[in-house]
Amino acid sequence: MSDLPVVACPFRSRRTPVQGLVLLCGKCARKLDGGYGDKGKDGLKTALRRALREAGHGREVRIVETKCLGLCPKRATTMIVGHNPGEMLAVPRKAAMDEVVQHVIPKS
After folding, report:
1. Is residue 55 scored above 60 in pLDDT?
2. Which of the four pLDDT bands, split at 50, 70 and 90, describes residue 49?
3. What is the pTM of this model?
4. For residue 40, is it within any domain?
């Protein structure tokens, strides 16, 4: 074996209120330029954040806009939810945010 000294892990961990993660395709969001929310002028990230806050899950879910996720639907934004990473969802324009929140918050 090696005679190298054992070093403690250099990474630090911090507790956060985040319990879930949502990845949104930034390319889809740029193409749509809105289409979500009450008046259809908000992007999916803004509308989803507002809907989560209204549902009482404000800081529990981290929403991250990424580069292209590879699935390019017409008139929709691609979304991956952290508790189900094997499934990509295409969220159409003017989708009801309460339905989107049901996909984001895992059923307990």
Report:
1. yes
2. very high
3. 0.83
4. yes
Look-up of token digits 């309460």? 98
Q: Which domain holds residue 44?
A: 31-104
**In this predicted structure, what is the pLDDT of residue 18?**
87
CA 63 to chain centre: 4
What the block records as the tokens of 75 is: 């008139």
Based on the structure, what is the number of domains in the chain?
A: 1
Pull the structure tokens for residue 71.
């699935």
Find residue 84's DSSP bridge partners: 81
How far apart are alpha carbons 9 and 86 in whole angstroms? 30
Residue 20 forms part of a structural domain: no
Q: What whole-number distance in Å separates Cα of residue 91 and Cα of residue 47?
A: 12
